[in-house]
């Protein structure tokens, strides 16, 4: 075929480059948290890096059984076909009953990160302002880049986000589209948002017209203390509750859910539908069958998991106290996967310590990776993740850390 | 805790509403294609609606075996853990060898729609202009709403997109960020883009600096005619090739891939990472094992699938000719799942015919759902999808359609 003559006077250059969109150009290369170049070069390094569940707490055998049962019952063909964007009705029903909400409000996602990115895109205007934990989970900050949002750091205290601080900023005229916090067993700072603060935060959201993004992946893993409640979140039309099976059934499934206010269900569905249609029918089939056909199984599994993580948390704190007396101020958390100890001696250089620890063969996240603004002692802290480390690994890791202290 | 006095003079209203973002507000409610209210009310309705593979052509038994083999080999724990955003190395390697490209250029996705939405967000500015097939796959048009793009309709001929038409528009000064087309067994119009047009389209993209989004889910399902080639797409840094296992291993897996130009791999990875981290480790594990551990199995499976779909396509055309002689101009396609017959008699009202057909118990997509601009006979056509319909269903469907013609 004949094309327009490229040598004609008004023809553009012979080859015009293809340029990514402003959105894509605005996405940063990971630095600090998640930067693989910071990992220990030692092949025997012990990683206390991520909020990773232990394989022994995950349903390896049960998923195989689940597939067998579904296949034997003639469910294979449906498991490989398209399904709805909202997610499986039976799975949403099981979750909704547990959460105590209408099943319509449950939207199945590809895990917690997916729930966060959907929420940011559905509710934050481009260039909008979002209040975030200080310190905060760094991957949420990267998700904010999808809408080019600015952040307003809000200090996190032992009992969670400093809601009074946020209230003052709002009273001074600050306006936000959303506040992001991890209410239970905060990542990285291990505390839990108190019931009083939950109520106050929701009241602020309703008064000022922003959304509370409650990122709650660890909430089922409480092994001490008192549950501070979620009803206040579910009762508000200004809260999106982000949850996932990642920490309880396995990150590799990529299966989670949102509890949405009723008025946001349709907008979220339309957005999700345009991204990737729906979560895997195959995965939903196996997980729905696992949960629905084995009444009580999930709670039995959780009970064992909590006991495992309680043991590891206590062991890690005990080893730190025994091997590094007076060097790190550590408290056993009430749940979750993280310890957030503080360097007791101001003379210790946190970055130099991390470099020496890496050389000794222990990897952890430096506190400075989580800083979102001034006024925090995070740079003097370490995030130690113990979820997927055995007793021996935890002991050896602390021995190596002690050598790094010198 | 004490909050700021809400009765203070500058306090906002007692309850401020939560408003979805402009992006979310810009997403339309499905009309026409995908509108459930248009479906036949008859419980025994036969649906010739979607590009759906037949269960008998999908690896139901093999996936169960694959899980058993992986689990027996001790791979269960890894299958439930996090994995990289790029996708499994072994799976990418298998795909890359088949495509004849460097494995780095393969990005694993949650299926074809996911690949399309990633591409649109990574390469089209907000409000940008995208040339699209006329007629076009309606769900791609909905994906364009993610960036509020405008469309430039380009006619589709028997041998695919009218590239000369596009060249003229570009020469006249029209500028676009992308062109979207389905090169093999076009959805809905069943044709295949000729080799000469592929080369000309890529040349235009390189000259004018836009991307060719080659959406190719049906390409493995050729059962007649001659392959028009993909090398020209893979050799250009102005083409994103979107593919998926949806039509060959099952939509329910939600597993696909992009073949990206090398310079776009990092931007796409950063975008994908922020959406939902990575595709299911569990699904990737089973599919990678299935493909890698059974050399030749995929091609054997495809050969049987092609034979099945060829048979159904031929049967459907034969039934139309036998039961509706002279009423519908139909041609057996060379592959894929769609027949795009045209009403021969101008006196037949296409919308009224569809209503009568629905009442008779046959569902199909009206041609008008696919129209993106003037100058097409699409409104006089029917999209009949035969992939998942048995011989008996196809015969009965045509009987019902014949009754609708009256």
Describe this structure in words.
Chains A, B: This is 2-aminoadipate transaminase. Chains A, B: Its EC number is 2.6.1.-. The structure is a homodimer of 406-residue chains. In chain A, helix 5 (112-123) runs parallel beside helix 6 (138-144), helix 5 packs across helix 10 and helix 13 (350-360) crosses helix 14 (391-405). Chain A is 38% helix and 14% strand. Chain A has two domains: 36-52 and 299-405, Aspartate Aminotransferase, domain 1; 74-295, Type I PLP-dependent aspartate aminotransferase-like (Major domain) (Aspartate Aminotransferase, domain 2, 3-Layer(aba) Sandwich). Chain A is built from 14 helices and 14 strands. In chain A, the strands form three sheets. An eight-stranded mixed sheet of chain A has the order 2-9-8-7-6-3-4-5, with helices on both faces. Chain A has a four-stranded mixed sheet with strand order 1-13-14-11. The first copy, chain A, has a two-stranded antiparallel ribbon with strand order 10-12. The first copy, chain A, is of the alpha/beta class. At the A-B interface, helix 1, helix 2, helix 3, helix 5 and helix 7 of A face helix 1, helix 2, helix 3, helix 5 and helix 7 of B.
Short structural summary:
2 copies of one chain form a homodimer. Chain A is an alpha/beta fold and 406 residues long.
What's the main sheet of chain A like? Answer: 8 strands, mixed
Helix amount of chain A, in percent? 25-40%
How are the strands of the biggest sheet of chain A laid out side by side? 2-9-8-7-6-3-4-5
Which CATH architecture of the largest domain in chain A?
A: 3-Layer(aba) Sandwich
Q: Based on CA inertia axes, which overall geometry of chain A fits?
A: globular
Q: What is the strand content of chain A?
A: 5-15%
Cofactor (chains A, B): pyridoxal 5'-phosphate
GO molecular function (chains A, B): pyridoxal phosphate binding; transaminase activity
Keywords (chains A, B): Aminotransferase, Pyridoxal phosphate, Transferase
Domain Aminotransferase class I/classII large (chains A, B): 77-401
